[in-house]
Amino acid sequence: MTPHPYQDIPPSQLDTLGPEVRRIDVRELDEYTGPLGHLPGAELVPLGTLEAASASWPREQPLLLICRSGNRSAKAAQTLARGGFQHLYNLAGGMLAVREPLTPQG
Question: Where are the transmembrane segments (predicted)?
């Protein structure tokens, strides 16, 4: 089985990604501005427009892909990997996981 061309990052590790990592939110505008909100600094690039939008992006720049649940962003990461991008991260669980209230363990 081929390894994923991207790395899943749980919300708890977002702070480990440096400022050089570009945050790309692949949801639609109404989701981006909706109740779940979006990550600080995230750019809205809906999945349907991603291939065209990313054509001029530097292939070596690290990208974090974000969506509601992690499914669309995983597809986006695969699309970008086919396009030659080498440093891709997928926000595991998406914005749902980011907004999930932290429950104490035990």
Answer: none
